[in-house]
């Protein structure tokens, strides 16, 4: 989960007001990617669409925020987070106000991804 904001209200506040089960939402988000992959065998359309979107932002020097993969010095690995995209590519990273629990989960995710990269390298 990301401790983001919508219309000035934190996502965690909205989730609490709406009685959303954050663990259930997290699991559904995690399984969504697997469902697409297991059904289609690949996710190339989504990857192609994201690539076209990012290239349009670069070519137009949009100075717009988009989610993209980039090397993160803190984790010594590639992760996907919001970034300012312009003619130089990733021009600035958007710092997410993560809770301690979210920071721990992000670190666990990065470690799992790195293990898979190492395994296949």
Summarize the structure.
One of its GO terms (molecular function) is L-lactate dehydrogenase (NAD+) activity. With 121 residues, the chain is an alpha+beta fold.
Q: What gap, in angstroms, lies between the N and C termini? A: 30 Å
Percentage of residues in DSSP E strands: 15-25%
Structural class: alpha+beta
Biggest beta sheet summary: 3 strands, antiparallel
Q: Give the name of the CATH architecture of the largest domain.
A: Alpha-Beta Complex
Number of domains: 2
CATH-assigned homologous superfamily of the largest domain: Lactate dehydrogenase/glycoside hydrolase, family 4, C-terminal
Low-confidence stretches: none
Number of helices: 4
Residues in helix, %: 40-55%
Strand order of the largest sheet: 3-4-5
CATH topology of the largest domain: L-2-Hydroxyisocaproate Dehydrogenase, Chain A, domain 2
Radius of gyration: 16 Å
Question: In sequence order, what are the helices and strands, one letter per element?
Answer: EEHHHEEEH
The CATH class of the largest domain is identified as Alpha Beta
Counted beta strands = 5
Describe the structure.
- By secondary structure, the protein is of the alpha+beta class.
- The chain folds into two domains: 1-36, no CATH class; 43-120, Lactate dehydrogenase/glycoside hydrolase, family 4, C-terminal (L-2-Hydroxyisocaproate Dehydrogenase, Chain A, domain 2), CATH 3.90.110.
- Helix content is 52%, strand content 23%.
- It is built from four helices and five strands.
- The chain has helices spanning 11-17, 22-40, 44-59, 100-120; strands at residues 5-6, 9-10, 64-72, 77-86, 89-93.
- The strands form two sheets. It has a three-stranded antiparallel β-sheet. It has a two-stranded antiparallel ribbon with strand order 1-2.
- Strand 1 and strand 2 (9-10) form a beta hairpin.
- The radius of gyration is 16 Å and the shape is globular.
- It starts with a strand and ends with a helix.
- The model has no long low-confidence stretch (mean pLDDT 86).
């Amino acid at each position: 989960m990301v401790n983001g904001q919508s219309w000035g209200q934190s996502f965690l506040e909205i989730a609490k007001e709406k009685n959303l089960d954050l663990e259930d939402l997290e699991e559904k988000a995690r399984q969504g990617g697997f469902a697409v992959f297991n059904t289609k065998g690949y996710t190339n359309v989504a990857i192609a669409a994201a690539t076209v979107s990012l290239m349009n932002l670069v070519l137009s020097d949009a100075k717009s925020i988009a989610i993209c993969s980039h090397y993160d010095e803190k984790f010594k690995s590639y992760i996907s987070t919001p970034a300012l995209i312009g003619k130089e590519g990733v021009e600035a990273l958007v710092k997410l106000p993560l809770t301690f629990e979210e920071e721990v989960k992000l670190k666990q995710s990065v470690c799992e991804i790195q293990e898979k990269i190492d395994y296949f390298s």
